[in-house]
Automatic annotation (TrEMBL):
SUPFAM superfamilies: Class I glutamine amidotransferase-like (SSF52317)
Listed EC numbers: 4.3.2.10, 3.5.1.2
InterPro entries: Class_I_gatase-like, GATASE, Imidazole-glycPsynth_HisH
Gene Ontology molecular function, alphabetical: lyase activity
NCBIfam families xrefs: IMP_synth_hisH
Catalytic activity of the protein: L-glutamine + H2O = L-glutamate + NH4(+); 5-[(5-phospho-1-deoxy-D-ribulos-1-ylimino)methylamino]-1-(5-phospho-beta-D-ribosyl)imidazole-4-carboxamide + L-glutamine = D-erythro-1-(imidazol-4-yl)glycerol 3-phosphate + 5-amino-1-(5-phospho-beta-D-ribosyl)imidazole-4-carboxamide + L-glutamate + H(+)
Protein name per Swiss-Prot or TrEMBL: Imidazole glycerol phosphate synthase subunit HisH
Organism: Altererythrobacter arenosus
Subcellular location: Cytoplasm
């Protein structure tokens, strides 16, 4: 039986584009807000578009979803991918529109991008390089290349060993975080053309055990 990839629907993701990209990569995708579907999924993708606070509140409004994610990912070991704000939600807290608690799966805070050079525009938008950090996990999925970014806040990870990739926008910004079976990317693979589809293909074959 083909693996099922659960794409979490909590009202805060670019679901159609992500679903299409996963399909092109070969996934059997189930778009769901049902915790029981998440508990049975082989792989899980958490998208996110908008503010950290809105996404965190939206996820918490889906009854039982965070408990199901913790059960399937933290206990069950299912490979997990967070995209954009879905990646930021892995943090301890976000500082957008006040302080909002994250999932606390990877220690760190999500801060506003504040470049020292006034000519550097925020949001960080468009194509940019993804540079691999050799000491981190996730290299089976993340590769060197160019990806599409769109964000005004960035993940400041506490432990450098959880930083899987970096990019540069007037300063070094985290492009991906990883630990164990958990991976998050700040860029949008669904908008990153061949680079993004190849990354999703590797995620679908990722065995982080």
């Amino acid at each position: 039986m083909a693996e099922v990839t659960a794409l979490i629907d909590y009202g805060a993701g670019n679901l159609h584009s992500v679903e299409n990209a996963l399909g092109k990569a070969g996934a059997k995708v189930t778009v769901t807000s049902d915790p029981d579907v998440v508990r049975a999924a082989d792989r899980i993708v958490l998208p996110g578009v908008g503010s950290f606070k809105a996404c965190a509140l939206g996820l918490r409004k889906v009854t039982g979803m965070i408990a199901a994610l913790e059960e399937r990912v933290l206990v069950g070991g299912a490979p997990f991918l967070g995209i954009c704000v879905g990646m930021q939600l892995l943090a301890t807290r976000g500082l957008e529109h006040g302080t909002t608690k994250g999932l606390r799966w990877i220690e760190g805070e999500v801060h506003l991008i504040e470049p020292s050079d006034a000519s550097i525009k925020v949001p960080h938008m468009g194509w940019n390089d993804v540079a691999i950090m050799p000491h981190a996990r996730g290299h089976e999925v993340i590769d060197e290349g160019e990806a599409y970014f769109l964000h005004s806040y960035h993940f400041a990870a506490t432990d450098p060993h959880t930083i899987a990739a970096m990019t540069d926008h007037g300063e070094g910004l985290v492009a991906a975080v990883a630990r164990d079976n958990i991976l998050g990317v700040q860029f949008h693979p669904e908008k990153s053309q061949a680079y993004g589809i190849a990354m999703l293909e590797r995620f679908l074959n990722w065995d982080p055990r």
